[in-house]
Specification:
single chain; four-stranded antiparallel β-sheet; 0% helix
Amino acid sequence: MNNFEDPIDFSLEKKFHDIEIEYSEVMEISQGGPVVGNLSVNGKRVKGRYGGPIICTSEYLYAPILVSKFLGSGFKLAKINVGTLEVSQLGKTKDLIYLDKLGENRIFYFEDLDRAVHRYMDL
């Protein structure tokens, strides 16, 4: 992940090995809040609206996916199979998921823009 990216300002186009990732129709979900948009992998659209930044491996993309909750919306962690574009939603809904890194069969993330609340999820 690029250390200069955050959920408000991240690259809308990326290339990881032979995987091309592109966001389109992006918008803030609230003023000054996270940005979400349509996500395409190698030119094929992935179902849902996604935030950033994302973490890529040769098999999977990990990205926050915007989901509806009882009052408003939030994010879950999406695990996207690069070959099939199948999406698995992991964990509980959070107000924000700011992905940090992969390691030790876990994905690490922050729950705030100040990077003060650090969490992880087993993969």
